[in-house]
Amino acid sequence: MDIDVAVEGSGTPALVLHGAYSTRDEVMPVLGPLLTARGMRGVYPDLPGMGESTDSSARSSDEVLDGLDAVIAAHIGDDPFVVIGHSFGGHLARGVAARHPDRVIGLALVSPLVDDFEPAPERVVEDDGRVDDLDEAVRDDFTGYFVVRNARTREAFENAVRPALGRYDGDVVEAIMTASTLTPDPGDVPFPRPVVVLLGRDDAFIGWKAQLRLMDAYPRATVVLADGAGHALLHERPALVRTALEDWLDRVSA
Question: CB-based burial of residue 95 (10 Å sphere; 0-12 exposed, 13-18 middle, 19+ buried)?
Answer without folding.
Answer: buried
